[in-house]
Amino acid sequence: MQRALDDSALAPQWLELELTESVSMADPERSVPMMERMKTIGLSLSIDDFGTGYADMSYLRRFPIDRLKLSISFVPDITTDPGCLAIADAIITMAHSLHLEVVAEGGGETEGQLSLLASRHCDILQGYFFSKPLPAAELEQFLRTGHSMPANLTGRASNAPLLLLQDDETLVLEYLSLVLGNEGDDVRAMSDPLRAFELLACHEFAVVLRDQRMPAMDGIAFLSRVKSMHPATIRIIHSAFDDALVTREAINRGAVYKFVDKSANNLALIHAVKDGFDSYLARRTTSHGANPAGATLHG
What we know:
By secondary structure, the protein is α/β, with parallel strands linked by helices. It contains twelve helices and ten strands. Helix 6 packs across helix 9 (193-202).
């Protein structure tokens, strides 16, 4: 490495070596002294694909590294999979406690991924949201233009909590949007659950109102994920009376806040949503900002 630096005249602080987690852990008694010698040269070191190998935490503490790179195997699913989000949360918290930066590989693909990782204080994102790989000349021009993170992607917005509506019937969504929009609620309506998870990652939603019987994912399964990933959001099932029994069980488990029968009048629905907003805002006030804006991110 020293010869390569001498031959290229590259300053060592501009070179970072990525070491795979498995290779680093295969023979720590040999790899740790080697890392220390590389650090004396002035190189930066990172552990690549962290979270998929067999890291020994006692050795990780000894490694003279600068950052951990979250494995691309689970980062792309953090907006839809509570397990992947929990792994990312745990690694980010652990890395920061060891004074290490965290890089999310594949976490810079969608606006939702960026916003959710920003709210978790991930330091660096690596993905196609910023740019696909470029030839050298185009890369130079790209960097000279001074690209930076859009201001609205430095964390989930928290000034005006929204209402999310989900139903597989377009006419129902239009009707609900009209009824609840007339009450002053800022409404987002859609039928695609994956798009809904993306929106939940990007914005602060006070209430989710969801039909139980929908293709791909039923209402309780969807709201159970919302509870795990966005626990402050109030979750309401708006469905047929036949779904009341199964929804009651979900309410008992805490996955659902309320059930509103679709045959009920508009006033019952309006009151349920208003109660949801009141409950959400009361919790937010008590917690003094449970959804803080994230740290500044680098692409």
